[in-house]
Design goal:
The chain is mostly helical. It is built from 18 helices and six strands. Belongs to the SusD family.
Length: 509
């Protein structure tokens, strides 16, 4: 239940958050709010900035980022699998009481409530000349963008969800809107945000990492793709041209020293060097330790498949930057395998991901021996139990220009312009990967392969496949698995249905 009192208090409390003045890490640090009254807040520009900064805080939860976004983006494709308690993704039998989904649902609606609360407060501050017109526009644009992003990922995971586009004044028990209605609302939020936000290159150094016009246009294009408005999506995506560029080398996209780089459109900001122990305060994440070999981290839950490893064409430079296997070295010299304490003590300091004779499959030999490296780029993470270096402070890229270009190619293809679509695939995406032109004439098949090899191990692949309508075929052709009816969506958390009897469960659960 999300009532008016809760939302109001949320806005008051999060106004005391601050946005650190750093061009490389723009994280939310919470201040003590005890004793603060309404009259003491929203009296200076910093209060308005902190109010909106509180919405970004929604992403700062280990289950939100890992188990409710990365899991679905990768486990549902079957290119990555899980060892441990969450192996149900392999059969698509995700339980309705899977706690991470409830965390995702709850935090997403908290973020949406914060955004809804922010709009009238920002307007009041503008009318009182506490903040100027430019700052009011930017903060309003950020709130629209973040509300739209949260609904984007809710709909990508669950399909239709309840739309709350203003401060809730009733008991908060609302029925689900349709998936199309949610993406239409995302599109409207992104249009408003794009009209209000500056381009990334126009942000002050201290604001790098905040929402920008290009990010709004990218998510607008994606929402239009979900709505099958392909010509509109083409126009949205093309506006990013000249403002973002592909990294010349694929390996540089996720480089620890290249955060907020020229290909990055929107990434969640974390803090490197903060508390990286179990006592951390969600200013970092555990995507790295979770997906590194157990032989290094004592975790090693998420691992890649040999099928993904073997699916790359010879010479594809994306392979080593995506997944490594027995006998392979890490592609980033900052992450030398030989330097990890457990590798030194247990394996004599070898500098490969196991060996072909003795692949690293965990203590019970249940893993594949293949591991994703896109989240394994923070050289500070050792992952040892008892060591503070378990979590990572590296930013997480949610949207980048390579993904936009592939989405643009799909939109062009579905608009009847295969020539321009193939040109993007061949002369930008595959050229960067060190590959020649695609073979064959089936543009959609080529796009599915490029989505896979461009985005595996990131935060979006399953959503792109489901959006294309080809996700069931993809899983059947690549892995011989028939996705049970309705199980391409996540279940509505059972605890939410218990709280709100107007919610209906997705078919199949």
């Amino acid at each position: 239940m999300r009532n008016k009192k809760f939302i109001y208090i949320s806005a008051i409390c999060f106004a005391s958050l601050v946005f650190p003045q750093s061009c490389s890490k723009s994280f939310l640090e919470q201040k003590n709010t005890s004793g603060i009254t309404e009259d003491a807040l929203f009296k200076k520009p910093e209060d308005g900035i902190a109010l909106v900064t509180g919405i970004y805080n929604t992403f700062h939860d280990v289950d939100f980022m890992l188990k409710a976004l990365w899991y679905q983006a990768n486990f549902l494709t079957q290119d990555f699998q899980n060892y441990g308690a969450d192996v149900f993704f392999k059969t698509y039998e995700v339980p309705t009481d899977f706690g991470a989904l409830n965390t995702f649902w709850t935090r997403a609606y908290q973020g949406i409530a914060r955004a809804n609360s922010a709009f009238p407060i920002i307007e009041k501050m503008r009318s009182a000349n506490i903040i100027n017109e430019d700052l009011a526009k930017r903060l309003t644009g950020e709130a629209y963008f973040l509300r739209g992003v949260l609904y984007y990922y809710l709909a990508s995971n669950f399909g239709g969800v309840p739309l709350e586009l203003k401060t809730v004044t009733d008991d908060g028990r609302h029925p689900r809107n349709t998936q199309d209605e949610v993406f239409a609302a995302v599109a409207e939020d992104m249009k408003k945000a794009a009209d209000l936000l500056p381009w990334k290159e126009d942000l002050a150094p201290a604001d790098l990492g905040r929402a920008n016009k290009g990010a709004a246009l990218a998510y607008l294009g994606d929402a239009q793709m979900w709505l099958k408005k392909y010509s509109d999506a083409v126009q949205s995506y093309k506006q990013l041209q000249g403002h973002f560029q592909l990294e010349p080398k694929f390996i540089d996209i996720h480089d620890f020293n290249n955060q907020n780089g020229k290909e990055s459109i929107f990434e969640v900001q974390f803090i490197a060097g903060a508390d990286m122990s179990w006592n951390h305060t969600n200013n970092n994440h555990w995507l790295a330790s979770f997906g590194m070999p157990e032989e290094i981290t004592q975790f090693g839950y998420a691992y890649a498949t040999a099928d993904l490893y073997n699916s790359f064409e010879p010479g594809d430079q994306r392979k080593a930057a995506t997944v490594i296997g027995p006998g392979d070295t890490h592609p980033d010299p900052k992450c030398q395998i030989s330097k990890y304490p457990r590798v030194i003590s247990n394996f004599g300091g070898i500098n490969t991901c196991g060996t072909k004779a003795n692949p690293w499959k965990g203590s019970d030999k249940a893993r594949s021996g293949y591991y994703g490296v896109k989240t394994w780029r923070d050289p500070n993470v050792t992952g040892n139990t008892g060591d503070i270096y378990i979590f990572s402070g590296q930013n997480v890229i949610m949207m980048r220009y390579g993904q936009v270009l592939l989405s643009l190619a799909e939109a062009l293809h579905k608009s009847g312009n295969d020539g321009e679509a193939i040109d993007i695939i061949n002369n930008q995406i595959r050229h960067r990967a060190g590959l020649g032109p695609v073979s064959g004439t089936n543009v959609m098949n080529s796009l599915l392969d490029e989505y896979r090899h461009e985005l595996a191990g990131e935060m979006s692949l399953w959503y792109m496949l489901r959006r294309s309508g080809e996700h069931l075929r993809f899983v059947k052709e690549k892995y011989g698995i028939t996705v049970p009816a309705g199980k391409d969506l996540m279940p509505i958390p059972q605890i939410q249905i218990g709280l709100n009897q107007q919610l209906t469960q997705n078919p199949g659960y």
